[in-house]
Design brief:
Length: 235
Amino acid sequence: FRSKSRSGIVYKVVVGGGKGSGVTAPTVVAVRRLSEGDDAKWRLREFEYEVEAIGRVHHPNVVRLRAYYYANDEKLLVSDFIRNGSLYTALHGGPSNELPPLSWASRLKIAEGAARGLTHIHECSPKKYVHGNIKSSKILLDEDFNPFISGFGLNRLVCGASKSANPTSRRPSLTHSVFSGSMLFSPPSAAYLAPEVRSGGGKLTQKCDVYSFGMVLMEMLTGRVPEDDGKGLDS
């Protein structure tokens, strides 16, 4: 099993449970192999700093980062595997979708849980973290339709260090981090973007996350993709 998006390829990996492993039950994880943009010139120290900041965000409605791997030609993120796919697929279908139509009770449960997860991302640090790419394909569902926000921090890891960052600094400034509202991000799906971002400038804030989440709520209420042709929203 694997899926592909702009931020890389995600593999479903079964760990342990083999003969002689000493583990009674296998553990299933998601391994994301990061794709790298033109600016992704990471040093190990910078990469570790960004990933460890992502790993400190713990909440029942946010996908947990479990481990990472860094090499010059390979960068991997290991996180919990959420079995029922994305809210986008649950709402609009897809090749691998075997879920029944979402009931109103399930939609309300998903909306409330995702709101709690996004609130935690915004409030868990005085650095005012920003997700920057909230959309229905970034909300994953487990067997009980509990929602998990995924993709937090991926824009920064794919785009790499800011060109304006001080290369002699002992660690990257959060002024240039994925978590800061002053960071210029790679563009998410345009239909979910706040108008002030869509019109130019590229600056994302927590208020932009709230707007994007509002678009997701409208998508859940109407069952319609927030764009006429729907292109690009499932990536």
